[in-house]
Amino acid sequence: MKPRIADLIIILFISLFWAGSGTPLMENSKSDPDILDEIFHVGSVQTILIEKSGELIAERYEGRLNGNRAVNTKSASKSILSLLVGVAIDKGYLEGVGQTIDEFFPDYFAQNPDSEKESITIKDLLTMRSGLETTSIRNYGRWVVSSNWSEYALSRPMVDKPGGRMIYSTGTSHLLSVILTRASGMSTRELANRYLFEPMNIQIGGWDRDPQGYYMGGNNMAMRPPDMIKIGRMMMDSGVYNGERVVSAEWIKESVEIYTRSNFNPYDFGYMWWRRPVNGYEMIFAWGHGGQYIMMLPELDTVIVITSNLMRNEGRGYQRELFRYMEERLVPFLAEI
Q: What residue ranges define each of the domains in the chain, with the CATH number in brackets?
């Protein structure tokens, strides 16, 4: 039996629970319609897919969306980027998370020497603890219209020491995409296709690039909801997909450990994977602006994908409503089947 992420997490965080074999599962569009219908009243949710114990037990779309249409996963793509860092380490393109960023940006630091910034590690970037001022929220617009995204991110003032508190910043995650390209000699998209997407039969859609041509690290990558389920299942199976190893089990385990806590919500953070309890079960999830999620409940051997319509974004209030629905309705139901 191939190891599952739940078997690894038990040592650190949670006790394992397996749903009994032979329990009747939901059918794709006929399963407890009241519970599934309720989620489409949360924010602008337009997709829900649920896979339990390796079987797709629910797949519902609203509006014009269907399983063949890629959706913008927004910052959920940061979790994909985390997987690519693990792949780059596995393949020898990177030495490890302890590498400092100075060797990947020699021209910048030759002109702008700064021993503190030069000591920032790949791990600091993965955990959003670089110490650099954020390029997100109020600074996002200035960052994306700048002529050089990586230099703009590196030029931000230090507001904490490297390895200190979490400072969420897409500029920070973008530095990882630049590092992946410079370390591997391939674009981040080429690296992802060769080692992650093609082995999993995933074809992504659009993916923004910066003015220098580097693929955006941690935002605006489009993926089909059924392919998002594949990512969650591969994580649950500790880096194995369809019997083939895609990412090392050690990296999967390391990625979902807790290193810090969000500075703007009550969620814990690993290597760009979020964590929080839901109805007594530990949930690990990728999360994108507006309601784009890959959710994993290891104790229930369940993967949930949710996407939402970005054209009808209703602000952050949907998060509380969504997790209330998870807490009170969906997770208790999944625990019973």
A: 5-336 (3.40.710.10)
